[in-house]
Amino acid sequence: MSWQATVLTLFPEMFPGPLGLSLAGRALNEGTWSCTPHDLRPHGLGRHRAVDDTPFGGGAGMVIRADVVDAALSAVQAPADVPRVFMTPRGRPLRQRDVSRYAEGPGVVLLCGRFEGVDERVLQARNIEQVSIGDYVLSGGETAALVLLDACVRLLPGVMGSDESGVEESFSDGLLEYPHYTRPAVWDGHDVPEVLLSGNHGAIAAWRQKQAEEITRERRPDLWSAWLARREENEATAA
Ligand code: 6GU
């Protein structure tokens, strides 16, 4: 059985979008995964198929109705073991470990909101996780869903080339990656770090490790602290 992405959205035309191209697109054509958008609109109420209403308690914006989301969920008939995820800036931050968990399972059902949000009751009652892709506001959950799917699909068996097999990438060991260089050895008067031309693989590995640590410390003090704490813990265990 292939990995199955179902997307509940008011903009089904946005899927698979860019994921129909490149690595993800090839995997889609080969049947490694599927992407099935499901329009929320037909589940709306009245002549206008309204999916949203004004918030109880007042305030700006509109809220997607619980009954509309529930009807869409029922229509797509995803098995109980498929994670249901609402894409929202109010969600917990998406991490590589979450991506790995999704990729290892049978697929995901992604709910994309527009407007102010979705009635909280359906999120709780139907066991829908809430996930954010970062601390900025998007106009809707669709582009966030594309990000989540991209991150998952590249982990599916056979999708990534063996030369980029994920063992050496950022976050797998908690550090950002070291910088990369290729020919020409001198470009516009700028040299490549000498050690990389030395053929000394031990020295190259040590240089890359140092660079990874340096860059992580500068750019991501949060990751650096976590990495330091983990190293301390490992050293204590080893001792
Ligand atoms: Cl998951 N959705 C929306 N609409 N905005 C976001 C987001 C998600 N993550 C960050 N901003």
From TrEMBL:
Keywords: Cytoplasm, Methyltransferase, S-adenosyl-L-methionine, Transferase, tRNA processing. It catalyses: guanosine(37) in tRNA + S-adenosyl-L-methionine = N(1)-methylguanosine(37) in tRNA + S-adenosyl-L-homocysteine + H(+). One of its GO terms (cellular component) is cytosol. SUPFAM superfamilies: alpha/beta knot (SSF75217). It holds the Pfam family tRNA_m1G_MT. GO terms for biological process: tRNA N1-guanine methylation. Coiled coil: none annotated. Its EC number is 2.1.1.228. The keyword Oxidoreductase does not apply. The keyword Transferase applies. It comes from the Bacteria. Gene3D superfamilies: 3.40.1280.10, tRNA(m1g37)methyltransferase, domain 2. It is an enzyme of class 2 (transferase). S-adenosyl-L-methionine binds at residues 113, 133-138. One of its GO terms (molecular function) is tRNA (guanine(37)-N1)-methyltransferase activity. Residues 5-225 form the tRNA methyltransferase TRMD/TRM10-type domain. It is found in: Cytoplasm. Homodimer. Specifically methylates guanosine-37 in various tRNAs. Belongs to the RNA methyltransferase TrmD family. This is tRNA (guanine-N(1)-)-methyltransferase.
